[in-house]
Amino acid sequence: MAVRDGSAKGPTAPDGRLLTPEEQRRVAELRQIDRNVRAHEAAHLAAGFGVVTSGARYGYTRGPDGKDYATSGEVAIDTSREQKPQQNIDKGQRIQAAALAPRDPSPQDYRVAAIGARLAAEGRAELAREGRGALTEGTRRAALRAYGGVELLSAASAVHVSALA
């Protein structure tokens, strides 16, 4: 019979009885899960500067010892677009870093990282489109001098520079 004055050897259930070996294994398993979940969410928080919008939230499971153990968790990450292409590139990279920070990313972490990759790619594409349209009159004249009035072709449009002479 278990002693109820706190001098019992080993973990006890809420009713004061000693836990069975199976219950003790379950408590050990829940403790390990709790440590892993907390480390996982802490990694998101540590790497998510500027994109994390909340602290970690946990889901709990009550163990046979009557204690609650974190068995799931989440950190909210802002995946919205920014106004400028370079901001989207930077934000997309930060989203990816935050999502993939844990040593064991979850399927949801990979989905969020993909959103970040897409945001960064869209920012790079937008910068490229802006760059193609940024040929100034001075650049056109310099091109005319350098290439002797030949036609310059870009992926976006064809510009006949010989007319600028």
Report on the structure:
It is rod-shaped, with a radius of gyration of 29 Å. Residues 150-165 have low confidence and may be disordered. Helix content is 48%, strand content 12%. It has helices spanning 21-47, 85-99, 107-132, 137-147; strands at 57-62, 68-74, 151-153, 158-160. It has a two-stranded antiparallel ribbon with strand order 1-2. Strands 3-4 form a two-stranded antiparallel sheet. Strand 3 and strand 4 (158-160) form a beta hairpin. It has two domains: 21-134, no CATH class; 135-165, no CATH class. With 165 residues, the chain is mainly alpha-helical. The protein has four helices and four strands; from the N terminus they run αββαααββ. Helix 1 packs antiparallel against helix 2 and helix 2 runs antiparallel to helix 3.
